[in-house]
Amino acid sequence: MSLTRSDFDQYMVPNYAPAAFVPVRGAGSRVWDQNDKEYIDLAGGIAVNSLGHCHPVLVNALTEQANKLWHVSNVFTNEPALALAKKLVEATFADKVFFCNSGAEANEAALKLARRAAIERFGEQKHQVLSTLNSFHGRTFFTVTVGGQPKYSDGFGPKPQGIEYFEYNNLDSLKALINDNTACVVVEPIQGEGGVLPADPAFLQGVRELCDKHNAFLIFDEVQTGMGRTGSLFAYQEYGVVPDILSSAKSLGGGFPIGAMLTTADIAKHLVAGTHGTTYGGNPLGCAVAGAVLDVINTPEVLAGVRAKHQQIKAGVEALNAKYGVFKEVRGMGLLMGCVLADQYKDRAKDVLNAAAAQGLMVLMAGTNVVRFAPSLVISDEEITTALARLDLALAAFVA
């Protein structure tokens, strides 16, 4: 069967606008398209491919499980889910884990749990959800409304109520909204889609203290920052601020769809049997792969490597920027990095992305003004060097 990019326009709902080339295979941090052109992948499937493409440990875990058991539903439990839950509990603040299929579902579960626990403890009035402007928490109607970007939530009719927004990294903005009817505050330790903007440590600590003062639950959305992305297994460990509930997905499965909500036993007891569920969540295939991902990532060597690779990429981009003057800031943490375009190139991130693709380099955008990198956590030094050389050519073409 001969398939091309034009088949997308013919058969697919037009809610995406994918690149002109079609990737067909990958190995490590390299991808090849239908014409066998090679690309270095700094996009990482939007921070999903934590161990690159077709990592042998993950291929083996998936293949072994595929020959044993695929799906039994949550009428029954399964060994890979139990093993993964145990590993996550032992590696984090959490006592309990709920598995689902995506980051949006993990956040949906976190928000439902926070509201239910708050209402059961304090009464129906305690349901307010506070979130940051320009945040992103998923595409379900609840999570997309909680995400403080109206461009994603407008146009679908009446929105879920009881949600208000404060400014990221502005504690006074939160103080003006939080009260004893606040059920939860949800924060990304690094705003991902909002432009790869890290939280100030004092801000996160202040949010924690305000939540404690008002008996509100603190939810950290670590869908994009979790699983080694920042150089710690989860970003909350990097900051030393512990949430009550944490959402994970993306890198957790290394490319296989899986999400998880982590919390304490005291909070988890509010989701009794029948209060929440998912057909596919915690399936043996996803959990087997995620267990293998966790085993590889949660080692001193890999986590230290993330920090070292951050410095290598940052130094390389800054050297290129001294040459071209395209960026006014390179920010982020670990291998979640954002290059903010200089004022003269404002809102042209898509042009940089296209110029990079022409040179065999896959990068991302975070809004229209930030070029984002979220590569494999085990990308090689050689691949980084090659990526920077291709970025050099792309920026030369971009400014020409």
Keywords:
Aspartate Aminotransferase, domain 1; 2 domains; alpha/beta; globular; Aspartate Aminotransferase, domain 2
What does this structure look like?
The protein has 15 helices and 17 strands. It has 400 residues and is α/β, with parallel strands linked by helices. It folds into 2 domains: 5-54 and 300-399, Aspartate Aminotransferase, domain 1; 69-297, Type I PLP-dependent aspartate aminotransferase-like (Major domain) (Aspartate Aminotransferase, domain 2). Strands 4-12-11-10-7-5-6 form a 7-stranded mixed sheet, with helices on both faces. Strand 16 (364-365) and strand 17 (370-373) form a beta hairpin. The longest helix is centred in the last third of the chain and has 25 residues, at 300-324. It is globular, with a radius of gyration of 21 Å. The two termini are 40 Å apart. Its EC number is 2.6.1.11. Pfam families: Aminotran_3.
Would you identify the CATH H-level superfamily of the largest domain?
Answer: Type I PLP-dependent aspartate aminotransferase-like (Major domain)
- Helix-residue proportion: 40-55%
CATH topology label of the largest domain: Aspartate Aminotransferase, domain 2
The proportion of strand residues reads 15-25%
Distance between the termini: 40 Å
Looking at the overall shape, the CATH architecture of the largest domain is 3-Layer(aba) Sandwich
Q: Biggest sheet, open or closed, and with what strands and sense?
A: 7 strands, mixed
Shape: globular
The residue-averaged pLDDT reads 97
Enumerate the spans where pLDDT stays under 50 for 5 or more consecutive residues. Answer: none
Classified by CATH, the class of the largest domain is Alpha Beta
Task: Kindly name the structural category.
Answer: alpha/beta
How many strands in all?
17
Q: Note the total helix count.
A: 15
Strand order of the largest sheet: 4-12-11-10-7-5-6
Write down the Rg.
Answer: 21 Å
Our count of domains comes out at 2
Keywords: Amino-acid biosynthesis, Aminotransferase, Arginine biosynthesis, Cytoplasm, Pyridoxal phosphate, Transferase
Pfam family, one: Aminotran_3
InterPro entries: Ac/SucOrn_transaminase_bac, AcOrn/SuccOrn_fam, Aminotrans_3, Aminotrans_3_PPA_site, Class-III_PLP-dep_AT, PyrdxlP-dep_Trfase, PyrdxlP-dep_Trfase_major, PyrdxlP-dep_Trfase_small
Subcellular location: Cytoplasm
